[in-house]
Write a structure and sequence with these properties.
The protein is of the alpha+beta class and 547 residues long. 43% of the residues lie in helices and 13% in strands. It contains 21 helices and 12 strands. Helix 5 packs across helix 7 and helix 11 crosses helix 12. The longest helix has 22 residues. The radius of gyration is 31 Å and the shape is flat. This is Ribonuclease H protein. It holds the Pfam family RVT_3.
Amino acid sequence: MGKSSLLSHGGRLQLIKSVLTAMPTYLLQTLKPPKYITERIERLFNKFFWGSFGEQKKMIWSSWESVCFPTEEGGFGVRKLDDVIEAFHTNSGGDSEINNLFGHTSFSTNIAEGPTRWWLNLPTMHQPTGKDFVAPVKKLSLIFWSIGKGEVSFCQVPFDDERTDLPHWKLSGDGTFTIKSTWNSFRQARTALQLFKEIWCPFVTPTMSIFLWRLLNDKIPVDQKIQSKGIQLASKCTCCNNIETLSHVFLDGPEISKVWEFFARKLNVILPSTKNITLFFSYWRFSSIGKNHIRTILPMLILWFCWLERNDSKHRGLKFNSDRIIWKVHQFIQTIGRTKAASSVNWRGDSNLAYCMGFPTCVKRKTNLMTVKWYKPDRGWIKINTDGASKGNPGPAGAGGIARDEKGMPIFAFYEFIGEATNMYAEVYGLFKALQICQTENIHRLWIEVDAVNLIRLIKEPSKGHWSLQNMLSYINLFLRKWNSGLHIFIGKGTRRQIILLTWHAQPNHPKLFGEMSFRVISRAFLNVIDWKFHTYELNESNFEAF
């Protein structure tokens, strides 16, 4: 611990994340220690982080429990040991619990009136099995079963004899058990704030991010804050005779005001008249364009180098100099430019300032363009195109499709608003719905074209899909094997009329199905302005794949 005093807050946090929290997690996977033990370990973590170790005592500015949250929820991105151990115990007992519970479709008990057999109605199980059995049952409610041969027959779903029955962990995207998803379900959550998420951007160091976290939470040791702790201290600002307060040091002091005014003129920003640092910082964020924009990064750098300048003035006897802060900010931004970590997106709308700082922002990406044509199916076949999309991913989602004959004439089209869903769910649902319609209409000689490579991969390996997709994927695979339909990937975003059909009505309450005549009436208005046979798209040829 002697050399630990040389570490910055960012270095200590990284050491805690990568080493100190990993050691007890590894050692305690099979044991569940008393809460006293984990609390004792976490107190040691907290003392180490704030620099209080051995005979060296320093002020502890926050409890360890208050920082054990994701960064967007106002924490440091570390986890409580109790939550992690609970997640590990779910994993260690998960396989055996699943095998014991679902290895047979019923259980035998010998309680009260003798042997009793009962169905797997897990949510309603109570005391006959004892509390040791009820606890894992609560965890098993997070498992969804995709049915293969149907050996676990407790719900009506499509049966796929070529697949084995597999449990799917509902909390993960691909159905596999993960500690992260399990921990996220056990832990206490707080409201996510975009402001706290942005201070951990990749263009500032972890030590800067921790400083900004302390600043936004009023945990910076300015004179006024130290006095509030009951410590007698004469306060005087290092650049004037005023009392040293948080707002005076970082916002309205005579020297720091020059820095804010200098960069405000460069970016054409009107400075807000507030002494609240959170509101002041948020004002700069609202004027930015996109993620990790220069208008978000710049206030972070000004606040950080202002604090360094204050410490040099107070403890090293240097004069507080606004020009030195401006120079340090310039140097840091130029360092970002030399490492090529940022791009023109981070300077969008402020390219003049980027040019003055020598930041190369005019480099354009090379795009590969090609013409994509919709081809008619062979004689006697029907081609169907499906598509789905979500606004927000997850967000309001819709799906639709079009079927055409060998002459390119539409046979039917459909679209449906499916509520809150992901892009992948919408893609799978669009194909699933199209095949249902084809089965109803007795259409079996199909060419199917979709635009999502991941959808093709899921159909090949449905076990890797999210639990909510399993029944639809089983239906799709059964249909394709039964009717020997062809499935091809289509480069682009389907035909133009299909996209219009998906977006024309934003939120229908029920699925809409159009026949040939009604579809012609709907699409006729668009044919005068859209050439729906030929379209140009940005293309990466390596993404082309056929099934």
